C-alpha cells in the first residue's frame, strides 16, 4: 500500500493518497532514528534543490560523517561560512589550474595517450579496465591538486584509491547505517564499520604525506596547485579565529576532491565501455562519427565536441541510464521547509532520488530503454534535456561538472578512435550494478582490438538516422 507521512514539526501524520501513482513525489523514512525525506521525480527535485536552493543546501550531521571529517572539508561540510570558503577556493583553483587553462586540455590529452598506450599492451586480449581507467581519471584531478600525475604502477597511490573506493561502498552498508543509529558500536571491535575507520585512517596518512611532499619548495602567493593555494589561505587567515581553513580541513578536502572526481568519472567510462561492447551498432555509429571528424587521424580536442553530436548523445544516455550517483549525496534542510503542502523540519536528512528523475515518465519516453537518440533532434543535432540531472542541482551541485565533461569526451573519443571494444568470445557480462554511494559495473573483461581508422574525406558527415 502506498503511504506518505506528513511532517509537521516533530509530529508525523500518515497520509493515504486517493490514487496511488507509480511513485510518490515525497515521502519520509525513519532510518534508525534519523528522520529522512526522499524526493522523487524531476518536478519535486527541482522545486527543492533549485527553487529552494538555500533551504536544501545543508548536509546531515550523521555520526559517520562527524567521525570521518568532523563535518568540515568541502563535500561533507555543513552549509555556512566554512563551506562557502572551501567551495570558493576549490572552484577558483579548478578554473585557475584546470579547465580555465588551454594548457590543461593538452595535459588531459597526454593522459589519454598514456591510457590508450597502456590498453594497447594487452594486444586485444581480455582485461579488466577498472584499474587503468581509475588511474588515468584520478590523474586529471591530481594535476590540479598536486600539480603532478602518478604513474600507473605507483602501488601506494593505487592502494590509497582502493581503500577510499571501498569506503564509498561501506558508507552505505548496513554497518554504516547501524553506526549512524547507534554510534556506541564504535567500541564493538568487529564489524565493517571498523574496516571503514581503518581505511579512512590509512587514507588520511597517505594524503598527509602527499600534501607535505607536494608543498615542498612552495613560494607563498605563487601557487602551483590547489595545495599551495590552500596553504596561502591558511596562512593569510591564521590570525582569524573564525577562519575555517585548517590543516585537517585541507586533508579532508583533498581526499574528497580526489574521490568525488575519480569514482564518478571512472564509473561513467567503465559503463560506456561496457555498453559499447554490448551494442555494436551504437559503437559503429560512434566510430563513424569519430572517423569523419578526426579524418586525418589526429587526436580529438574539445573543439570537436560540437561536431560530434552522436558521441555527446551516447555519453549523456550513459549518465542518464546508468545513474552513477543514484541518490545524490545526502542533503539536509538548513531551515524549516514547505514542499507541496508538507512541512519538513530544519535538520531533516534529504535524499534526492536522481534515479527517479532519469526514469520519470513525464519527461522520458521508454526510460528503461538505452536510447542515445533521445538526445538528438530530427536533424541529428544534440539537444539538452531538462530532466537530466546526473550532477544534481542547486547550491551543492557537482563542483567538477565541467572537468568531468572534458574528461569524458576526451577519454571516450581517444579510446574509440583507436579501438574496437568487444567481449571475449561467448561471454556477456551482467549489467546489474554493484551497489554503493555510486553505481558501478561488476568487474568485467573486455578486448580492445586496434582498429584501422577508416578515412573518409574530411567534412563527410555521418548519417544520424
Ligand atoms: C561523471 C562525473 C560526475 C558525476 C556524475 C558527479 C555527480 C555529483 C553529484 C550527484 C553530486 C551531489 C551534489 C548534491 O549534493 O546534490 C556531486 C557533488 C560533488 N562533486 Fe561531482 N560528479 C562527477 C564528477 C566530479 C569531479 C570530476 C569532481 C572534482 C574533481 C567532482 C567533485 C564534486 C564535489 C566536490 C561535490 C560536492 C559539492 C558540494 O558539496 O558543494 N565531481 N557530484
UniProtKB/TrEMBL annotation:
Q: Which reaction does it catalyse?
A: vitamin D2 + reduced [NADPH--hemoprotein reductase] + O2 = 25-hydroxyvitamin D2 + oxidized [NADPH--hemoprotein reductase] + H2O + H(+); 1alpha-hydroxyvitamin D2 + reduced [NADPH--hemoprotein reductase] + O2 = 1alpha,25-dihydroxyvitamin D2 + oxidized [NADPH--hemoprotein reductase] + H2O + H(+); alfacalcidol + reduced [NADPH--hemoprotein reductase] + O2 = calcitriol + oxidized [NADPH--hemoprotein reductase] + H2O + H(+); calciol + reduced [NADPH--hemoprotein reductase] + O2 = calcidiol + oxidized [NADPH--hemoprotein reductase] + H2O + H(+)
Q: In which pathway does it act?
A: Hormone biosynthesis; vitamin D biosynthesis
Q: What does this protein do?
A: A cytochrome P450 monooxygenase involved in activation of vitamin D precursors. Can metabolize vitamin D analogs/prodrugs 1alpha-hydroxyvitamin D(2) (doxercalciferol) and 1alpha-hydroxyvitamin D(3) (alfacalcidol) forming 25-hydroxy derivatives. Mechanistically, uses molecular oxygen inserting one oxygen atom into a substrate, and reducing the second into a water molecule, with two electrons provided by NADPH via cytochrome P450 reductase (CPR; NADPH-ferrihemoprotein reductase).
* Similarity section: Belongs to the cytochrome P450 family.
Q: Which residues bind heme?
A: 398
What EC number(s) are associated with this protein in UniProt? 1.14.14.24
Listed A to Z, the keywords are: Endoplasmic reticulum, Heme, Iron, Lipid metabolism, Membrane, Metal-binding, Microsome, Monooxygenase, Oxidoreductase
Intracellular or extracellular location(s): Endoplasmic reticulum membrane; Microsome membrane
InterPro entries referenced in this protein's UniProt entry, alphabetically: Cyt_P450, Cyt_P450_CS, Cyt_P450_E_grp-I, Cyt_P450_sf, Cytochrome_P450_fam2
Q: Name one GO cellular component term.
A: endoplasmic reticulum membrane
This protein's name: Vitamin D 25-hydroxylase
Swiss-Prot/TrEMBL cofactor(s): heme
Membrane topology per record: Peripheral membrane protein
Matching Pfam families: p450 (PF00067)
**Lineage: superkingdom:** Eukaryota
Recall the GO molecular function terms of this protein's record. Answer: heme binding; iron ion binding; oxidoreductase activity, acting on paired donors, with incorporation or reduction of molecular oxygen, reduced flavin or flavoprotein as one donor, and incorporation of one atom of oxygen; vitamin D3 25-hydroxylase activity
Q: What class of enzyme is it?
A: oxidoreductase
**Complexes and interactors:** Homodimer.
Any Gene Ontology biological process: xenobiotic metabolic process
